């Protein structure tokens, strides 16, 4: 069964639109955990537009007390510290999540929209990956379904890749869907053959998730934006149950 990790960034985005701590991130994390999710994901950014460093610390303390729940911190390892944001690697050192997903996003991006070009950044990533792994933290790289890039992901020492599924979601309902799905399937199969675990995320939802989850050996999906929208429409617990049913 593919693990479901819920990304809480959009809950934090709503909270940050007002003063105070409402909605409370920890309450929503506890609801997810009580409903049996496999993981909690956060993607702190230097501008603190949603998840903040203190959220990361509190969630790490909560999740590490749960034997069956993994904590996944995403972010750009090259982003400079800014104000209260100490940098991704510093947060990982402090909180020791089960998984750290490295993402090549910039402050100017609305959201993550492409994977690493390891022909350009792979050499810089090697010591970062080695350092994070030395702490006992699994390292995943956010990647496009490019076969040559997947080969490089294995060479730089990643444990897993997270396939960027934005193009797959955008192609839903179009004549391009089968070709784009085939690209992701081939990338996943190659990654598995190279000893890499395969995660996936970005714009997966209740409509398109079942097809993508048919990929063999898909270990984890991370879902946040669509899950938040579905929670508004259905209620949070029914939304969680719907995603869990698709992945069961």
What is the count of DSSP helices, taking H or I runs of 4+ residues?
11
Percentage of residues in DSSP E strands: 15-25%
Q: Would you list the SSEs in sequence order as H and E?
A: EHHEHEHEHEHEHHEHEHH
Please write the CATH class name. Answer: Alpha Beta
Number of domains: 1
Arithmetic mean pLDDT: 95
Rg calculated over all Cα atoms: 17 Å
General description of the model:
The protein has 248 residues and is an alpha/beta fold. The chain has one domain (3-247): TIM Barrel, CATH 3.20.20. 44% of the residues lie in helices and 17% in strands. The chain is built from eleven helices and eight strands. It has helices spanning 9-15, 25-34, 53-63, 88-95, 118-134, 147-155, 166-170, 177-193, 209-212, 225-234, 236-247, and strands at 3-7, 39-42, 70-75, 99-102, 138-143, 160-164, 197-201, 218-223. An eight-stranded parallel barrel has the order 1-2-3-4-5-6-7-8, surrounded by seven helices. The termini are close together. The mean pLDDT is 95.
Task: Summarize the structure in short.
With 248 residues, the protein is α/β, with parallel strands linked by helices. It has eleven helices and eight strands.
Question: Helix and strand layout, with pairings?
Answer:
Elements: E1 3-7, H1 9-15, H2 25-34, E2 39-42, H3 53-63, E3 70-75, H4 88-95, E4 99-102, H5 118-134, E5 138-143, H6 147-155, E6 160-164, H7 166-170, H8 177-193, E7 197-201, H9 209-212, E8 218-223, H10 225-234, H11 236-247
Parallel strand pairs: 1-2, 1-8, 2-3, 3-4, 4-5, 5-6, 6-7, 7-8
Helix pairs in contact: 2-3, 6-8, 10-11
